[in-house]
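Changelog note: in this version the structure field was regenerated for every chain. One regenerated record is shown below for reference.
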Amino acid sequence: MKSEIVPQMGTIACVGAGVMGHSWATLFALHGHRVHLQDVDDEKLAQASGWIRTAVDLFAEKGLIKKGEIAPTIGRISHTTELDEAVEDADFVMESVYEDYNVKKQVLKEISEVAPKEAILASGSSKLLISEIQKAVKNPGRCIGAHGFNPPHLIPLVEIIPGETTSDQTVDRTRSLMKSLGKVPIVVKKEVSAYLGNRMQYSVNQAARDIVESGIASVEEVDLAMSTGLGLRWALYGPFMVSYFNTPSHLIQRYDHSGLVAEGLEDHSMLKGKTFDDLVRWRNSKLIDILRVVDRPLSIDSKIG
């Protein structure tokens, strides 16, 4: 499971030991990094320790690491309530504190005064503007957003959000680090509240609430519509590829795609060097695999059962 440590990124400080913070610490430790996990609350650190143990044990149970790697992985994570102690020798700081401008700005301000000047300071905010947060940071060019999705030690996507004064070097180093962890980094080109993933998720959640409140379907039926329909496809490809599979030969014309969307479809990596039949076979094979994993019956099961 270990990956090559990105140069000058050996020691990581994870500030905040909650749901996201402990998961980030787990991921970094699994990939061989020394991690300082910090929180002001001893009880939260104790709880995080249990969560980390559970996560690492499951990795061994699933064969992703050897049982002999459990203790060394957990041993790479130290715990402290002192912020200075956590960040004073860190190469990369992953902040996961309460989602509030004042809280994040104060914490990152304190971090920037103690952490080495070369250290990257990443905020795990899920919606706040990094340009606003980095105003409180000493040397703001090293401040960047790195928004993972719960749980970040399992969900590959991480959104990298540069603020107005974030340096290109900070973006490149953060992207390299995330790739070394097996993450799929997406650099948000234009800073907006809630970034990319959550903007789409908020739209889906609002539509789901509207459907239920309008009496169109129940809460459970809405969830089933996602888990047995849309969600299965979205596990493999996004909304633009859904359109492609529906109308492969007339995609742009039928859906009136133009501008950046049309250009993006022309450059889509999934479409390079593959025929429609190739992609349909790949899609169907993967859907069968997913349905079996999530224990959903296949339509043919009724005939062979």
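Spot check on this record: Residues 232-304 form one domain. Strands lie at 11-15, 34-38, 77-80, 92-95, 120-123, 143-148, 157-162, 184-187.
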